[in-house]
């Protein structure tokens, strides 16, 4: 990262000293965890570049778009329909954060035992570390878990925040509610952008996001090959960048990566020797730069073949039907698609169990590691259901609960290694 | 073949050398800050054909000396299976962590749980409590067994539990009753961990805390089954590593 962006960061009111420190840590992490890998795909160069410029060129692009009158929306959850934003010429950025920087500031407002994902986005805002947050015209939250729900109330004091009501079940009444919420979000976005939602533009947005999902799904499916053609770390990074990058450019990159992967698979090449143990990771989202568990798992000699997570399959699996002609029809289709998301904040949530089993089988996983962020009740509690179901299916299972701190990395390694020894 | 197993724990280091199944050399010492140096000294006292290292310091030692390594889980399973082939559940309470391991007939690990986040209920916890009760760690068990079951300690956190112990003493409660309460609090926590993994007999209790008679007796009552304690409960990890070294 260079000085050329400093003026821009200053304008975005970042704390330059603290921000510099964050970038240094990020760079070191990236070096240790990513650039040290061997046999990476050529296409990953683009992702290395994107990560190198994650607070630089991408932010510049966003600033330029803003001066041209486009609006930027910050999101935290895959329940907020991106299609509406894109159709109104808005830009979406994921604000979930995966670093401890800013926890001190966050803990002045939030209890210590708050999930790190929440503490991190709060801390990034308060400690003035995140140029994405600073670039947002509107932050769009949602009523998923209690932690986020209540944190948005406080977050609203610092930045314009809109909260979409996401139901907790998938009943008919819940669908009606969610459909009304689509309309309310549409009105809000129309007012903010000064545009009207047009059917043609909404259809294009639906197609664009579908195309990005399909590209990521194609990549996910290629990981079923033995030996695994791409490391779990790289695949996670691709899924993380999906939340920041320009969707058209990103999709094209992933499509190119898939072509390269297909060649590899055809030649029987991979990133790990044949018969390396294959792991499916399931649970909470991993936001940049939270690469801790993948680093431990792959550092212990296994390879990750899938992420049953919002930074992974939960984000991409289902597509929106492209049949509808009218705006209302398309909003219905969006509603149907979004309500298929199998997040642990829903009750009951049996689809998730089926999806985990299906993924484990399709990707030829030797075991599942369930990942809950510390203090995340929905996933920690649901892990028992996952455990029971996987036991019934005869799939080895390990439960891990951890935060962002690197302090517990040795005990974590012991758990993971012991699990690998048993399968 | 002569094989050696080294267990680098957070509090102690154990070394076992086996001539086939017969232990020919065992050593135990407190883990020092510079434990690779300590390992060098320990190893210079003996000879072996193959060696494996286990325990929380295994990575560092394996790297330093070019040895193979296994986790404590696998090592304990191998060690206990060798000593007690009928064992199906292992409880290991060491200096700073607690593990429950489930194994099958062949001694293969089928499930495990670890508490590795804090010192609650571990050897370290008992040391702090013994200090608060002004007794020696080796005497805490006898003291607890002579006490009545009438007090409760509610915190599992070592720091808070110590505060509770001090408060109970200040209130004039008898030290033996307080000691009993300390043991009971650990027993509750450990037994729920065992039940989560699933209790199957025969159950074997190892690690330094297995020397505490009160924990063994009260836990056995709580679980409603016998608990077998090996003669040298702190050596099962090193022993297992020595056994596994044969096939390494
Ligand atoms: S885990 Fe649930 S609440 Fe979190 S981003 Fe995913 S869908 Fe949203
Ligand atoms: S990880 Fe869990 S607690 Fe944290 S924001 Fe997501 S659902 Fe909420």
Description:
The complex is a heterodimer of chains A (423) and B (248). Chain A contains 19 helices and 8 strands. Chain A is α/β, with parallel strands linked by helices. Chain A folds into 2 domains: 3-169, Rossmann fold; 202-422, Rossmann fold (3-Layer(aba) Sandwich). In chain A, the strands form 2 sheets. Chain A has a 4-stranded parallel beta sheet, with helices on both faces. In chain A, strands 6-5-7-8 form a 4-stranded parallel beta sheet, sandwiched between helices. In chain A, helix 3 (44-52) packs across helix 12 (232-241), helix 10 (172-193) crosses helix 16 (327-338) and helix 11 (199-222) packs parallel to helix 13. Chain A is globular. Chain A starts with 5 loop residues before the first helix and ends with a helix. In chain A, 48% of the residues are buried. The mean pLDDT of chain A is 96. In chain B, helix 3 packs across helix 9 and helix 4 packs parallel to helix 6. The longest helix of chain B is centred in the C-terminal third of the chain and has 23 residues, at 175-197. In chain B, strands 3-2-1-4-5 form a 5-stranded mixed beta sheet. Chain B has 248 residues and is an alpha/beta fold. Chain B has 2 domains: 1-84 and 232-248, ATPase, nucleotide binding domain (Nucleotidyltransferase, domain 5); 86-229, 2-Layer Sandwich (Nucleotidyltransferase, domain 5). The interface between A and B is medium-sized, with 10 and 16 residues. The complex binds iron/sulfur cluster (2 copies). One iron/sulfur cluster (SF4) binds next to helix 7, helix 9 and helix 18 of chain A.
């Amino acid at each position: 990262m260079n000085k050329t962006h400093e003026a821009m960061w200053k304008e975005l009111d970042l704390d330059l000293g603290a921000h510099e420190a964050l970038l240094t840590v990020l760079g070191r992490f990236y070096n240790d965890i990513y650039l040290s890998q061997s046999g990476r795909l050529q296409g990953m160069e683009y992702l290395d570049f994107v990560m190198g410029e994650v607070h630089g060129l991408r932010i510049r692009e966003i600033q330029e778009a803003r001066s041209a009158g486009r609006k930027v929306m910050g999101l935290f959850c895959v329940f907020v329909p991106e299609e509406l934003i894109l159709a109104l010429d808005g830009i979406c950025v994921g604000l979930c954060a995966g670093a401890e920087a800013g926890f001190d500031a966050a803990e002045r407002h939030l209890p210590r035992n708050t999930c790190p994902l929440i503490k991190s986005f709060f801390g990034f805002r308060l400690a003035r570390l995140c140029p994405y947050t600073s670039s947002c015209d509107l932050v769009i939250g949602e009523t998923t878990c209690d932690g986020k729900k209540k944190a948005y109330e406080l977050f609203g004091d610092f930045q314009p925040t809109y909260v979409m009501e996401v139901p907790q079940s998938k009943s008919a009444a819940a669908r009606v509610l969610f459909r009304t919420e689509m309309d309310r979000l549409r009105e809000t976005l129309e007012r903010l952008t000064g545009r009207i939602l047009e059917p043609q533009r909404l259809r294009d947005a639906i197609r664009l996001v579908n195309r990005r999902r399909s590209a990521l799904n194609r990549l996910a499916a290629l990981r079923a090959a033995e030996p695994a053609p791409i490391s779990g770390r790289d695949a996670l990074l691709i899924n993380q960048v999906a939340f920041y990058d320009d969707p058209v450019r990103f999709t094209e990159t992933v499509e190119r990566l898939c072509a390269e992967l297909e060649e590899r698979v055809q030649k029987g090449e991979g990133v790990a020797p044949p018969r390396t143990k294959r792991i499916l990771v399931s649970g909470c989202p991993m936001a940049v730069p939270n690469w801790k568990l993948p680093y431990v798992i792959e550092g212990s000699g296994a390879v990750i073949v899938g992420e049953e997570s919002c930074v992974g399959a939960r984000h991409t699996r289902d597509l929106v039907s492209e049949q509808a002609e009218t705006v209302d029809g398309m909003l219905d289709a969006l509603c149907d698609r979004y309500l298929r998301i199998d997040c642990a904040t829903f009750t009951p949530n049996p689809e998730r169990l089926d999806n985990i089993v299906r993924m484990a089988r399709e990707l030829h996983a030797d075991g599942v590691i369930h990942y809950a962020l510390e203090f995340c009740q929905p996933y920690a509690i649901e892990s028992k259901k996952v455990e029971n179901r996987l036991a019934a299916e005869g799939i080895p299972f390990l439960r891990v609960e951890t935060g962002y701190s690197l302090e517990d990395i040795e005990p974590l390694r012991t758990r993971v290694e012991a699990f690998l020894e048993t399968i | 073949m002569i094989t050696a197993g080294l267990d680098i724990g957070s509090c102690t280091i154990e070394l076992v050398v086996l001539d086939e199944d017969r232990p020919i050399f065992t050593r135990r010492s407190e883990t020092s800050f510079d434990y690779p140096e300590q390992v060098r000294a320990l190893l210079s006292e003996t000879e072996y054909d193959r060696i494996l290292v286990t325990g929380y310091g295994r990575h560092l030692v394996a790297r330093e000396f070019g040895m193979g390594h296994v986790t404590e889980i696998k090592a304990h399973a191998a060690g206990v299976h060798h000593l007690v082939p009928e064992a199906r559940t292992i409880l290991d309470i060491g200096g700073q962590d607690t593990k429950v391991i489930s194994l099958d007939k062949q001694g293969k690990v089928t499930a495990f749980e670890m508490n590795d986040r804090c010192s609650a209920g571990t050897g370290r916890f008992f040391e702090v409590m013994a200090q608060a009760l002004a007794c020696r760690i080796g005497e805490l068990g006898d003291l607890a067994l002579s006490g009545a079951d009438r007090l409760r300690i509610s915190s599992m956190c070592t720091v808070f539990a110590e505060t509770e112990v001090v408060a109970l003493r200040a209130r004039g409660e008898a030290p033996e009753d307080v000691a009993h309460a300390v043991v009971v609090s650990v027993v509750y926590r450990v037994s729920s961990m065992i039940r989560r993994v699933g209790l199957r007999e025969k159950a074997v209790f190892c690690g330094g805390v297995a020397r505490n008679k009160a924990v063994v007796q009260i836990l056995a009552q709580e679980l409603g089954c016998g608990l077998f304690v090996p003669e040298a409960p702190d050596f099962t990890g090193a022993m297992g590593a020595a056994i596994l070294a044969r096939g390494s």
